[in-house]
Amino acid sequence: MNIALIGYGKMGKIIEEIAISRGHTITGKSSSKHPISTIDFSNTDVAIEFTAPHFAVPHIEYCVDNNVPVVVGTTAWNEKLPYIKDYVTNKNGSLLYASNFSIGVNIFFDINKRLSKLMAGYKEYKPSIEEIHHLEKLDAPSGTAVSLANDMMLENDNFSSWIHREDFKPETSKKQIPVTSFREDGVPGTHEVSYESEIDIIDIKHTAKNRTGFALGAVISAEWLVDKKGIYTMQDVINL
């Protein structure tokens, strides 16, 4: 399979190593010095995009316009998701996006949804989310933390919104979920969901040891997407 890498930072380089180890060929790389328009898409089966939030939408449009399926790992652009879904659908394109491509994190998402549903009947437990990432992480809260909070609200109607602060837990109203972000040197990504009552605490936690899991998941997603049309997420890939 021929893969174009849109974004060639730390993640792009790890994705390249994994893709090559799985027998794929890298046909082009874009970066701040080499924009996406420099890639020859005529010999590309699929693109993998990890850049910055303000680049994600035009990159998706460019791939769709060139009839190249695209896997997007950039986060914090989801306010444009309704527009992009229409764009991809109207042009018969192929898009797979996720807030996190780690298989472990996506299992964690499923556990979080199941736990949230179980906790709906126990209002004495107050939930919270905490996430820790490396200093280069551009968005806060992380896309993974946002997905966790949104899934919790979907499964438990005791909560209708979430509120975020950096470095300390925010004050919340009765129906809000507090989300706290920390940025520390060398932390690939840690997410913890807690339910606390006056008598005990229930915690579930995912800790990434390195970025390899994210990169491997992106390559697996590209392999899965290459011959499909439509809009998908990582949950479709691992069939949870």
In words, what does this structure look like?
The chain has 240 residues and is of the alpha/beta class. It folds into 2 domains: 2-101 and 212-238, Rossmann fold (3-Layer(aba) Sandwich), CATH 3.40.50.720; 103-207, Dihydrodipicolinate Reductase, domain 2 (2-Layer Sandwich), CATH 3.30.360.10. Helices cover 35% and strands 26% of the residues. The protein has 7 helices and 11 strands. It has helices at 10-21, 53-65, 81-90, 103-119, 143-155, 212-225, 234-238; strands spanning 2-6, 25-30, 46-49, 70-72, 94-97, 126-133, 161-166, 176-183, 190-196, 201-207, 230-233. The chain has a 6-stranded parallel sheet, sandwiched between helices. Strand 4, helix 3 (81-90) and strand 5 (94-97) form a beta-alpha-beta unit. Helix 1 (10-21) crosses helix 6 (212-225) and helix 4 (103-119) packs parallel to helix 5. The chain is elongated, with a radius of gyration of 19 Å. The two termini are 26 Å apart.
> Which structural class do the helices and strands define?
alpha/beta
Number of domains: 2
Oligomer: single chain
Strand order of the biggest β-sheet:
2-1-3-4-5-11
CATH hierarchy: architecture of the largest domain: 3-Layer(aba) Sandwich
The best one-word shape is elongated
Specify the CATH class of the largest domain. Answer: Alpha Beta
Radius of gyration: 19 Å
The count of helical stretches stands at 7
> How would you state the average pLDDT, rounded?
96
Main beta sheet strand tally, sense and closure:
6 strands, parallel
Question: Beta-strand level of the residues, as a percent range?
Answer: 25-35%
Give the ordered list of helices and strands: EHEEHEHEHEHEEEEHEH
Per DSSP E runs of 2 or more residues, the count of β-strands stands at: 11
- Name given to the CATH homologous superfamily of the largest domain: NAD(P)-binding Rossmann-like Domain
| Helix proportion range | 25-40%
N-to-C CA distance: 26 Å
